[in-house]
């Protein structure tokens, strides 16, 4: 007697290792449009270091006291005449930079890395979680047109200062909340601003307030990333006073 078995019956008897939903999930995860997708080596290194398994060779720059001394030194760049610097860390620096670009009186913004122990780090180094750098935005502003307090207001409005080493789906020490001051006046204003902000929140603020250290300008493709079009090529306005919602990854 010849038995006829349908393909559906076979599929039910021998189910694939992943359901359609899970296959769809992994296709989306691997999609080039996934904003959290990083090169494999960077992702693996980041996760290994996060759990304490990252390997470091004897030649690693982290072992150099000279490298650490330079990285931990002050920001020795100078603003333009009549201008001042401010420096903030508030998660991924793309959206934070655009927010400051829109502030009247801000004359220049740069994204980069600071507060770490390695001289001249790359983006991949910072993503590894082993250098202790923070993704920061260095703001140059005209104090006649823009007060430091107004920059602090933008800083607090742009991120959640109560999540340690995390902003949304971005997790790692490079995404920590920080205000890095260039003068005693900035330090005082930052502390007072944080105390005021804490009164408005029911969770403890974890923002660090530290002297500005050497600033390492990020790779050129990171600069003004969202204003140039971001990941998907849709430019976002950097016009002064613009209050359009900021799409963090473009």
From TrEMBL:
It comes from the Eukaryota. Residues 86-228 form the Peptide methionine sulphoxide reductase MsrA domain. Its EC number is 1.8.4.11. Residues 58-81 are annotated as: Disordered. GO terms for molecular function: peptide-methionine (S)-S-oxide reductase activity. One of its GO terms (biological process) is cellular response to oxidative stress. It catalyses: L-methionyl-[protein] + [thioredoxin]-disulfide + H2O = L-methionyl-(S)-S-oxide-[protein] + [thioredoxin]-dithiol; [thioredoxin]-disulfide + L-methionine + H2O = L-methionine (S)-S-oxide + [thioredoxin]-dithiol. One of its GO terms (cellular component) is cytoplasm. The keyword Protease does not apply. InterPro entries: Met_Sox_Rdtase_MsrA_dom, Met_Sox_Rdtase_MsrA_sf, MsrA_MetSO_reductase. Keywords: Oxidoreductase. Residues 58-69 have a biased composition (Low complexity). Has an important function as a repair enzyme for proteins that have been inactivated by oxidation. Catalyzes the reversible oxidation-reduction of methionine sulfoxide in proteins to methionine. Belongs to the MsrA Met sulfoxide reductase family. PANTHER family: MITOCHONDRIAL PEPTIDE METHIONINE SULFOXIDE REDUCTASE. This is Peptide methionine sulfoxide reductase. It comes from Genlisea aurea.
């Amino acid at each position: 007697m010849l038995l006829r078995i349908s393909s559906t019956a076979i599929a039910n008897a021998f189910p694939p290792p992943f359901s359609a939903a899970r296959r769809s999930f992994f296709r989306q995860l691997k999609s080039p449009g996934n904003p959290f997708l990083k090169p494999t080596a960077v992702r693996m290194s980041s996760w290994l270091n996060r759990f304490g398994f990252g390997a470091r060779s004897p030649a690693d720059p982290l072992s150099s006291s000279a490298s650490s001394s330079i990285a931990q030194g002050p920001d020795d760049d100078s603003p333009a005449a009549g201008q001042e610097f401010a420096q903030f860390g508030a998660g991924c620096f793309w959206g934070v930079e655009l927010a400051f670009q829109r502030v009247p009186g801000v004359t220049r913004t740069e994204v980069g890395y600071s507060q770490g122990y390695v001289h001249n780090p790359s983006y991949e180094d910072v993503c590894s979680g082993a250098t202790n750098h923070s993704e920061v935005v260095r703001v140059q502003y005209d104090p006649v047109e823009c007060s430091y307090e107004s920059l602090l207001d933008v800083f607090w409005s742009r991120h959640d200062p109560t999540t340690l080493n995390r902003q949304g789906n971005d997790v790692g020490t490079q995404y920590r909340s920080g205000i890095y001051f260039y003068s005693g006046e900035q330090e005082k204003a930052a502390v007072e601003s944080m105390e005021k902000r804490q009164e408005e929140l029911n969770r403890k603020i974890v923002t660090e307030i530290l002297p500005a250290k050497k600033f390492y300008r990020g790779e050129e493709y990171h600069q003004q990333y969202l204003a140039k079009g971001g990941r998907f090529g849709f430019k976002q306005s950097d016009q002064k006073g613009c209050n359009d919602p900021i799409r963090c990854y473009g």
